[in-house]
């Protein structure tokens, strides 16, 4: 098969790789029908995730068709159409028993495209298939389901739920990339009074406006002044960090009101300063997190019922063998306007 192989910081190739095989009785082999690229993949290529070793097949999001299963798999079978979650869950350890699958102690967590070969390939081995895949209803398209592999549950759980967004809140989302836009979308489920989007890219702010942001703060604007004016000097109830650099995290701590929440979603590759000399007196709650995907079934139900349409995040479409072109597009959002790219298997493959 063909797969996207990581060869160290800054180096990747779409090349031949061995077909995956069932290794454990809980495994499934899935033919990849649709896959996407995550900002985390770009962090890996920058060298921000040193636990990813050269030779690894990247990717942790896919929709596909089951082609083989181990003898212990009971909930999916050959021919089933499934969502492959970015988080793998053993289903048995202490964390999995509480729905905290991202911290799985039994061989799961974020392993696809990280500690084992991932989904940016023609086929993928999915460990613990019973608890790490989701059967897809006929009415849910591959593209819509693909947005549930990572960005929608990540923004919802790590941003909106961790940030304790409530009706009537003022929510500021710093970073209007795919995760930030998904945070805007899912924050609206809780009917906040205002959602403020902060991003230097005009195209992303336009997308934020289309998805429900009430106030846009762009390049050259004073985010703190804009939030202060909107809230009568109080500050935002919730600030969601969706970039992953020190400046945006520190900005969130300045934009939030005393007693508010800062929910960090971005993947950080460098230290950020926690200004406790200013923050100790402000009663802030700061949360971090890796997505658990415990919300995926509920989000899938909302898509099936027509309450959510995550395909609005998709800006570019490619065939699977166009992986290099898709990476070039996704890695230059300022020049291409890319939000999410989708690569699909050719119908004849």
CATH architecture of the largest domain: Alpha-Beta Complex
- Structure annotation, total helices: 13
Unreliable stretches covering 5 or more consecutive residues? none
Provide the succession of SSEs: EEEHEEHEHEHHEHEHEHEHEHEHEHHE
Radius of gyration: 20 Å
Would you state the CATH class of the largest domain?
Answer: Alpha Beta
Cofactor: Zn(2+)
Family: Belongs to the zinc-containing alcohol dehydrogenase family.
Pfam families: ADH_N (PF08240), ADH_zinc_N (PF00107)
Keywords: Metal-binding, Oxidoreductase, Zinc
Tell me the layout of helices and strands.
Layout: E1 2-6, E2 12-16, E3 28-36, H1 39-46, E4 62-69, E5 81-84, H2 94-97, E6 123-126, H3 129-132, E7 133-135, H4 142-146, H5 151-161, E8 170-174, H6 178-187, E9 194-198, H7 202-211, E10 215-217, H8 223-230, E11 236-241, H9 246-255, E12 256-264, H10 276-279, E13 285-287, H11 296-304, E14 314-319, H12 323-330, H13 333-336, E15 340-344
Parallel strand pairs: 8-9, 8-11, 9-10, 11-12, 12-13, 14-15
Antiparallel strand pairs: 1-2, 3-4, 3-6, 3-15, 4-5, 5-7
């Amino acid at each position: 098969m063909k797969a996207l192989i990581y060869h160290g910081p800054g180096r990747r190739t779409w090349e031949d790789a061995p077909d995956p095989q069932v290794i454990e009785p809980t495994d499934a082999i899935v033919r990849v029908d649709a896959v996407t690229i995550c900002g985390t993949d770009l962090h890996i290529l920058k060298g921000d995730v040193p636990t990813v070793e050269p030779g690894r097949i990247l990717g942790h999001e896919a929709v596909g068709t089951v082609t083989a299963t181990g003898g212990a798999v009971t909930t999916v079978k050959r021919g089933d159409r499934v969502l492959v979650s970015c988080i793998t869950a053993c289903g048995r350890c202490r964390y999995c028993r509480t729905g905290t699958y991202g911290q799985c102690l039994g061989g799961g967590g974020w392993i696809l495209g990280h500690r084992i070969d991932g989904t940016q390939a023609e086929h993928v081995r999915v460990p613990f298939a019973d608890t790490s895949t989701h059967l897809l209803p006929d009415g849910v398209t591959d593209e819509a389901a693909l947005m549930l592999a990572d960005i929608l549950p990540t923004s919802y759980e790590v941003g909106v739920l961790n940030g304790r967004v409530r009706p009537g809140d003022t929510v500021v989302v710093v970073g209007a990339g795919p995760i930030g836009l998904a945070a805007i979308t899912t924050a609206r489920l809780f009917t906040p009074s205002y959602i403020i989007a902060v991003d230097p890219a005009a195209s992303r702010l336009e997308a934020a406006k289309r998805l429900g942001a009430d106030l846009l703060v762009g390049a050259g604007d004073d985010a703190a002044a804009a939030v202060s004016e909107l809230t009568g000097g109080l500050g935002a109830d919730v600030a969601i960090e969706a970039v992953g650099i020190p400046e945006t995290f520190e900005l969130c701590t300045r934009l939030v009101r005393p007693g508010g929440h800062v929910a960090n979603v971005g993947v950080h590759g460098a230290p950020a300063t926690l200004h406790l000399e200013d923050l100790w007196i402000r009663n802030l709650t700061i949360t971090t997190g890796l997505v658990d995907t415990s919300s995926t079934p509920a989000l899938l139900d909302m898509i099936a019922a027509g309450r959510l349409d995550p395909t609005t995040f998709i800006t570019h479409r490619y065939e699977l063998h166009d992986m290099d072109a898709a990476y070039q597009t996704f890695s230059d959002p300022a020049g291409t306007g890319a939000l999410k790219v989708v690569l699909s298997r050719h119908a004849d493959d």
